[in-house]
Amino acid sequence: MSIDPAREASLDVLRAVRVDDAYANLALPIILRNRGLSGRDAAFTTELAYGALRWQGLYDAILAQCVSRDWEDVDPMTKDILRLGVHQLLGMRVPTHAAVDSTCNLAKGAGSPGGAKARAGFVNAVLRKVTERNLDQWIEYLGVDGDSEQQLAIRWSHPAWIVRALAQALGEKRSELGDLLEADNVPAKPSLVARPGRISLDEMLAIPGVEAGRWSPLAGTLVEGIPESLEEIRTGSVGVQDEGSQLVTLALSRAPITSHTNRWLDMCAGPGGKAAVLDGLAQQVGARLVAVEQHPHRAKLVSNTLGLETTAEVLTGDSAQHEWSGEFDRVLVDVPCTGLGALRRRPESRWRRKISDVSGLAPAQRSLLNAAVKAVAPGGVVAYVTCSPHFAETELVVQDICKAHPELTILDAPALLPEVTDASRGKFVQLWPHRHGTDAMFLALLQRSAE
Question: Where is the SAM-dependent MTase RsmB/NOP-type domain positioned along the sequence (predicted)?
Answer without folding.
Answer: 166-449
